[in-house]
Q: What sequence folds into this?
């Protein structure tokens, strides 16, 4: 019994350390698209917390498997291995610890993350985004500018942007990979997101696209709008030119 | 004709007969009220239950069970050797094997579709599929895999192993057990018919309102998933009753193997929560067919079916895309919205 426990502990520690190393050196380095907004940190941090927490859980599952294979092994096919003995304490501890871990993760990064993503400050810029089969329409209500289809969505850097999201027909989902956050566009409801882009970005980076992320029928995969994050002055100039263009149209 | 006595053949013949009866009854009803005899979507919805009953009666539900309801003794046929796996068997081990083999077949189909999807995704743009067939393939893959994942564990291994592990002679309701298995082939057949007649492109989740705007294959998907829900509910009841009442003396709750606990938990979930799905899907299937038939909005049905304020545009699409074609809609297309320009936010 003691030898089994020692074996289990060694396997647990080894697998956990290896998984932590892979998480830190590989997953944390390569798995994220370009980070383009302040709020992205909350989501990336949550992702890494869950990854690190998964390492000891993965380790103990592997350890339990290795120990049972070792302990109940037989040398001949018709031989019986060591008998299974009920140890009531193990499942109870297992249940208790995993439930506690789950609760912990729901509280942090779950609830704490949601709270920090909810920004009650008055936004610098309002954006009305409407999804329909199969394109986005973006409206800058203060400037009375409206863009849609293959046009570019242009945002100013370092501004708190409130996005109000609606749908005309079926469920869609607002998702810009660089900003990480994603929220459904629900017909009959307005959902909102708060985004503060903190670096410049252009659509040649695949993370800078407004991509529908909820299956919405035939051309769902093509429901994309390129996104560009620019300096405040450039944004004002672009907005003015859009307004001019809108006036020129009959 | 020995072939005609094979349960599956008898089931197929009665299923086709049931389908014909249901479709004809609906057609006559329509003809009497001055409408066209032919109508595809609603015909499927109405004829399918008849076909299902015919199938179940044919494979053995009548001789093993239903005869008793009419005061006659059951006359179960006995099949031996490999044939027993192709008949209405009440033996939990046979049923376990039937489940596993059926779902391996379904698993292979779903896996093949997954490989086609991956081949398509290997390079940018569309090569193998169109957007339409890609969505159909993805949807078939999704529902087939979800069904396999749920059912192979619960139906297959559960049936084979649980009675052995708790020391029961068989499941609590052996005939119900056989019935739930024989409800599975129609599910697979309906999903495949749906796929080969144009498919449906709302994935395995079938979220409304997309699933209401969808192609006609959605109707077959709904019917198949309702049937599969029935399998889940009946199977769940059976496992719960077996584990609660059929444990051997001395097999107390705390001595139950972990697998039995797993089946117990899964059965509890499928028994309780599949019913919500089972209640929601018909309300998508039948009123949708009604609106398509009528061509004018049925306000009560619309209220029941759509999110509270879906908006005039969406509603116009909903009925306008259906009104002029009561037949089979196998191609996906962009619904036209009469009362709003394409770019207009509300
Ligand atoms: Cu979409």
A:
């Amino acid at each position: 019994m003691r030898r089994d426990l020692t074996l289990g502990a060694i396997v647990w520690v080894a697998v956990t350390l290896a998984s932590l190393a892979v998480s830190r050196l590989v997953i944390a380095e390569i798995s994220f698209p370009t980070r383009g907004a302040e709020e992205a940190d909350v989501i990336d941090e949550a992702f890494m917390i869950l990854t690190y927490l998964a390492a000891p859980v993965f380790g103990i599952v592997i350890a339990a498997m290795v120990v049972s294979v070792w302990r109940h092994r037989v040398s001949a096919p018709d031989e019986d291995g060591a008998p299974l003995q009920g140890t009531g304490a193990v499942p109870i501890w297992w249940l208790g610890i995993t439930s506690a871990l789950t609760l912990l993760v729901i509280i942090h990064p779950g609830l704490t993350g949601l709270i920090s993503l909810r920004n009650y400050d008055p936004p610098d810029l309002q954006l009305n985004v409407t999804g329909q089969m199969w394109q986005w329409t973006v409206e800058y209500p203060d400037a009375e500018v409206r863009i849609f289809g293959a046009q570019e969505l242009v945002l100013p850097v370092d501004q708190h942007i409130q996005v109000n999201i609606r749908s005309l027909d079926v469920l869609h989902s607002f998702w810009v990979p660089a900003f990480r956050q994603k929220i459904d566009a629900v017909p009959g409801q307005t959902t909102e997101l708060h985004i503060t882009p903190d670096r410049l970005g252009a659509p040649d980076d695949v993370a800078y696209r407004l991509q529908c992320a909820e299956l919405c029928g035939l051309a769902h995969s093509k429901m994309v709008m390129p996104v560009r994050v620019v300096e405040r002055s450039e944004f004002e100039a672009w907005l003015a030119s859009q307004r001019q263009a809108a006036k020129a149209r009959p | 004709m020995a072939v005609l006595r094979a349960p599956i053949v008898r089931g197929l013949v009665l299923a086709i007969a049931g389908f014909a009866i249901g479709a004809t009854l609906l057609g006559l009803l329509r003809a009497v009220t001055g409408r066209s005899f032919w109508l595809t979507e609603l015909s499927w919805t109405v004829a399918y239950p008849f076909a299902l009953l015919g199938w179940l009666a044919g494979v053995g539900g009548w001789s093993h069970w239903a005869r008793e309801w009419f005061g006659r003794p059951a006359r179960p046929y006995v099949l031996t050797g490999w044939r027993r796996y192709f008949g209405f068997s009440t033996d939990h081990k046979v049923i376990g094997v039937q489940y596993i083999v059926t779902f391996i077949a379904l698993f292979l189909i779903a896996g093949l579709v997954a490989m086609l999807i991956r081949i398509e995704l290997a390079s940018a743009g569309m090569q193998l599929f169109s957007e339409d067939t890609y969505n159909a393939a993805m949807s078939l893959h999704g529902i087939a895999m979800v069904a396999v994942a749920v059912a192979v564990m619960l139906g297959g291994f559960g049936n084979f192993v649980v009675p052995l592990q708790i020391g029961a002679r068989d499941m609590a309701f052996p005939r119900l057990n056989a019935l739930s298995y024989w409800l599975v082939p129609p599910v697979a057949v309906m999903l495949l018919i749906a796929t080969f007649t144009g498919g449906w492109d709302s994935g395995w989740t079938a979220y409304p309102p997309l699933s209401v705007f969808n192609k006609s294959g959605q109707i077959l998907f709904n019917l198949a998933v309702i049937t599969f829900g029935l399998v889940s509910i009946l199977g769940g009841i059976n496992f719960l009753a077996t584990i609660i009442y059929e444990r051997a003396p001395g097999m107390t709750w705390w001595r139950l193997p972990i697998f039995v606990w797993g089946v117990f938990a899964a059965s509890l979930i499928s028994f309780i929560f599949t019913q919500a799905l089972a209640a929601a899907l018909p309300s998508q299937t039948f009123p949708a067919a009604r609106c398509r038939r009528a061509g004018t909005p049925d306000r009560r049905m619309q209220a029941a079916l759509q999110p509270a304020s879906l908006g005039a545009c969406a509603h116009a699409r909903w009925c306008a895309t259906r009104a002029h074609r009561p037949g089979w809609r196998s191609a996906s297309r962009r619904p036209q919205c009469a009362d709003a320009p394409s770019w207009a936010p509300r």
